[in-house]
Design a protein that fits this description.
Elements (H helix, E strand, L loop, with lengths): L2 E2 L10 E6 L13 H4 L9 E5 L8 E6 L8 H15 L3 E4 L10 H14 L17 E4 L5 H22 L7 H15 L2 E5 L1 H7 L2 H7 L7 E8 L7 E12 L8 H4 L7 H15 L5 E11 L11 E3 L5 E3 L7 H14 L2 E8 L3 H7 L4 E5 L2 H14 L3 E3 L4 H7 L7 E2 L8 H10 L7 E6 L5 E2 L9 E2 L4 H7 L3
Parallel strand pairs: 1-6, 2-4, 2-5, 5-6, 9-10, 9-13, 12-16, 13-17, 14-15
Antiparallel strand pairs: 3-4, 7-8, 8-10, 11-12, 14-17, 18-19
């Protein structure tokens, strides 16, 4: 995306979108229209098309009302810009400096405007159709705010990368293809990449992910991508992602209404991979790894069934009571592997339970932790990015229910007791070693939107890529 300087205004071949607050300053390019603009209702979201004055290099201008500056927030500003972009559906250049006002901090206002210019204009390219000519979206920014715009555009590109991965159909985004994405990112950014497939997984005893994989014609992949931006002795944080590239439910087959959209069951993997990409591209002085368990959950002659017992990488045995509770099995081996790789802090992300959607809807991510301080740290950044988290309960009672099996150390699903999200989290916590700080993020609701929003396309959302990028910015 191009970022033009004010001196390059004559080079811009598209309409200039100028966001303006009520009774706010008017850019010099519109000085001839000042009296007229002062008569406009610049309530939030209002649009006005102006023919540009002949003595300016402007081709034409579109005024976007931002309302009263004291009522503006970063999220509201981004959504207002995004809604206008999607409603206008044309090539545009956005004037960023006009969003700076006394109400919202200048850096935040410019950043949200630039981020929205890329995030909101995103569309997943249809498979096999002739390429639609992409709309040209650019920015007009002064030198003072250009670095802010560049960082926002970098963030948006990583979020959109996660959305691309999530939106790709499951027959094209197989476990092997997801592994290739990580491998290619590793080569581009000079990161260490390790990919373990079935033979090696059998050798190390990763029986939980292999059990889920038995019904698939594609091999499972346990992917580790490591970024070392701090000293070698500094601790590593692991971002662990569930990568079910398609989940049919296994022999506990999903109903048709639940089968559609299961390509999104790898959004946890996509989002942690692209959060690591953002951290690495920023050259943050931290040590972070992404650990992804990738497989399909399908039906086949060798597929796992209820009452099977799997031996996980940790050595713990698991009785299968529901083959559609597969994500926690894949994550159990990925969590163990992250700890074997030296991670002392772990954030896992997964489209794990429908119960979380029932509890929190689509706008919130469910959060569980064994370390209130660690979660409070994450929440401070999620509040900054306005990506909503809500902590759900996790205590010994849930652990006791998970451990009730006559033939194994635990069951993978507690039937008929409710509290599905907390029980799934309790299962995962059984694989966290003493002294390791851990947060589990259930993005079953927030990972994708089937109808989209006025400011964003439907499909994968890339949720929490921004938040994790902020948390590990330095």
């Amino acid at each position: 995306m191009n970022i033009y300087k004010p001196t390059e205004l004559s080079s811009i071949n598209t309409s200039l979108l100028i966001p303006l607050y009520q009774k706010g300053p008017i850019p010099c390019e519109l000085a001839d229209y000042a009296d007229f603009i002062n008569t406009l209702d610049l309530d939030t979201g209002k649009l006005y098309h102006l023919a540009a004055p002949l003595k300016t290099p402007l081709k034409n201008a579109i005024i976007l009302g931002l309302g009263k500056p004291e009522k503006m927030t970063g999220k509201k500003l981004g959504e207002t810009i995004g809604t206008a972009l999607r409603a206008l559906d044309q090539s545009l250049c956005i004037y960023t400096d006009s969003v700076v006002h006394d109400g919202l901090p200048a850096k935040e206002a410019v950043w949200e405007t630039a981020f929205a210019s890329s995030f909101s204009s995103y569309e997943f390219e249809k498979i096999g159709s002739s390429k639609k000519k992409a709309l040209e979206i650019s920015l007009l920014s002064s030198d003072a705010v250009r670095p802010i715009c560049e960082d926002a555009l970098l963030t948006a590109s990583c979020v959109n990368h996660a959305r691309d991965l999530g939106n790709t159909p499951g027959n094209l985004m197989t476990p092997e293809e997801l592994a290739k994405e990580a491998e290619n990112l590793g080569k581009e950014l000079n990161l260490t990449c390790e990919i373990l497939t079935n033979k090696k997984l059998e050798e190390i005893g990763a029986g939980a992910i292999l059990g889920v994989n038995k019904g698939s014609s594609h091999e499972a992949c346990l992917i580790t991508l490591s970024y070392q931006g701090a000293d070698a002795g500094a601790p590593f944080t692991a971002l662990v992602g569930k990568g079910l590239t398609f989940d049919a439910g296994g022999y506990n087959l999903k109903p048709a209404s639940s089968m559609d959209g299961m390509k999104f069951d790898m959004c946890g993997a996509a989002n942690v991979l692209c959060a690591l990409e953002l951290i690495a591209r920023r050259k943050s002085e931290v040590n972070v790894m992404a650990v992804i368990g990738a497989t399909e959950n399908k039906i086949g002659p060798d597929a796992y069934t209820c009452n099977d017992v799997l031996t996980s990488l940790s050595g713990r045995t698991i009785e299968i009571t529901n083959t559609d509770a597969e994500g926690r099995l894949v994550l159990s081996d990925a969590l163990t592997w992250a700890q074997k790789k030296g991670a002392c802090r772990i954030i896992d992300m997964a489209t794990l339970t429908g119960a979380c959607v029932a509890a929190l809807g689509k706008n919130y991510t469910g959060a569980f932790t064994n370390s209130p301080e660690f979660l409070k740290e994450l929440e401070s950044f999620s509040q900054k990015t306005e990506e909503k988290l809500w902590q759900l309960p996790l205590d010994e009672d849930f652990h006791k229910m998970v451990m009730e099996s006559d033939v194994a150390d635990m069951t993978n699903c507690v039937i008929g007791k409710g509290a599905g999200s907390s029980l799934a989290a309790a299962f995962l916590e059984e694989f966290i070693e003493e002294g390791v700080e851990w947060i589990h993020l259930d993005i079953a609701g927030s990972s994708d939107f089937s109808e989209g929003r006025p400011w964003m396309a439907k499909g994968a959302s890339g949720v929490l890529v921004r938040t994790l990028g902020e948390m590990y910015r330095e």
